[in-house]
Amino acid sequence: MIEYSNKFRFGSNVWGGVFDFLNSGGKSFLYPKLIIKKYKKKPSQFLSSILNNNCGIQSMPKALIIGTSNLSELRQVFDNNEILCLGGLGDAIQCKKLGIPYISNYTLTKNLYNCWFNCDIEKFNKLIKFTSNILNENNIKKVVVSNDSLPLERLIIYSARDLSIKTFCIQHGLFSRKIPDINDGKYADIILCYDIYQRQILLDSGSTNPISIGYPFTSLSQSSCQDRKSLLFFGQPWSRYYSDKHDAYISVVGNIKKLCEEFGINFKYKPHPSETIIANGVIDKSSLDKSDLQSTLDKHFMFCSISSTALLQASLLGKLVFQIYDQFFLDERYQDFGYCYSISIQDKYKFLELIRFGMPLKLPSDNKRIHRLKEVLRG
Q1: Architecture, CATH, for domain 230-357
Q2: DSSP-derived 3-state class of residue 72
Q3: How far is residue 100 from each of residues 26, 83, 91, 107, 234, measured CA to CA in Å?
Q4: Domain boundaries of the chain, sorted by first residue
Q5: What confidence score (pLDDT) does residue 219 get?
Q6: pTM of the predicted structure, to 2 decimals
Q7: What pLDDT does residue 281 have?
Q8: Which residues contact 273 (CB under 8 A, 6 or more apart)?
Q9: What fold is seen in the domain 14-215+370-377?
Q10: Three-class secondary structure of residue 135 per DSSP
Q11: Is 56 exposed, middle or buried (0-12, 13-18, 19+ CB in 10 A)?
Q12: Three-state SS for 354?
């Protein structure tokens, strides 16, 4: 039996509860500013508002999902007609192809951020009622999000809780207890996380009900590649999200590239999908890996990064993986959890030892994640 937290995390300040992420992380944390900039100009998303294929009251009880990032797994838990997706244009196109009911997030997000820009509490209260009507009219019985930090997800979670609808957050990346204020799990009734280590980080960060269900990566095909002649660096958007970490990040990438050159290793760099600032002067076009993630994982054996979740994904495939650990980036030391090796950028001999003789770490994993998802989401 799953126990649900009765803690009303929004308290009496619902406005603050919905919008406080936009003020989180300190002056150097740029992500909230990027979100605000995005929603100040959102005309292209108007297209998604005319693609709705779910109008009127729905008799079938539904699970509302925000976006399609967890759709492949959720379709193994629910039938298509039990899902209602709230999302943008890309989500609309995917749902149309799969025959999944969809409603646009355009009106909600436009009005929500207008409330923020204009400090309009009266319209904000009306928007809460509007959101509750969406949940009621579509017979929503549970809500599933991939984060419970951003304003849209918080608004829906608040409205759902007011209607006694259970809310769930599915972990989408590795957390660190060194930056607890931006970790998820504080607003949804339950956060479904990877393992006991992520669960403890969430508890330490203020989450009241994390449940570990396993990793979402084990379904990827195993590769027999054992090539130690190349090393792929998983890029991260540090320069985009943190103003004070750009130089340090570029330095780490440059130093790894130099070590590869010194030891005769072919250096490859795979940019993060949201990475807009590639290390000019450090990364040339010939070093870029533009393959999809599955192909990248298949064709390489050695991987490194500062804290990319793809490190864990590669380790689960039996690859040789190591984290460049530096306390400045406020990450956990992944070797403490058995995810991969963790080395300092200054320890070139450890680097050489790993690329020549290192053996992949073996992570315990099972195939029960979908079973656990069903148990929790349908319980």
Answers
A1: 3-Layer(aba) Sandwich (3.40)
A2: helix
A3: 39, 7, 10, 20, 33
A4: 14-215+370-377, 230-357
A5: 45
A6: 0.91
A7: 63
A8: none
A9: Rossmann fold (3.40.50)
A10: helix
A11: exposed
A12: helix
What is the token pair recorded at 243?
């103003």
Burial 19-55 (b: 16+ CB within 10 A, else e): bbbbeebeeebbbbeebeeebeeeeebeebbebeebe
Closest by alpha carbon to 9, among 211, 209, 212, 213? Answer: 209
pLDDT band at residue 54 under the 50/70/90 scheme: low
Residue 226 has a pLDDT of: 75
Fold equal for 14-215+370-377 and 230-357:
yes
Half-sphere exposure of 275 (CA within 13 A, CB side): 21
What are the φ/ψ torsions at residue 327 (nearest 5 degrees)? Answer: -60, -20
Q: Which H or E run contains 369?
A: helix 369-377
Q: Residue 11 to residues 14, 76, 206, 226, 331: CA-CA distances in angstroms?
A: 7, 35, 15, 54, 30
* DSSP designation for 11: T
pLDDT band at 137 (very low <50, low <70, confident <90, very high): very high
CA distances in angstroms from 281 to 13, 82, 285, 302, listed in the order given: 48, 51, 10, 24
CA distances from 3 to 189, 208, 209, 211 (A): 9, 11, 8, 11
**Model confidence over 277-316: pLDDT tens digits?**
665 567 888 899 989 999 999 999 999 999 999 999 999 9
Residue 8's pLDDT band, with cuts at 50, 70 and 90, is: very low
Check residue 279 and give left, alpha or beta (phi > 0: left; psi -120 to 50: alpha): beta
- More confident site: 219 or 145: 145
- Mean predicted lDDT score pLDDT of the chain: 88
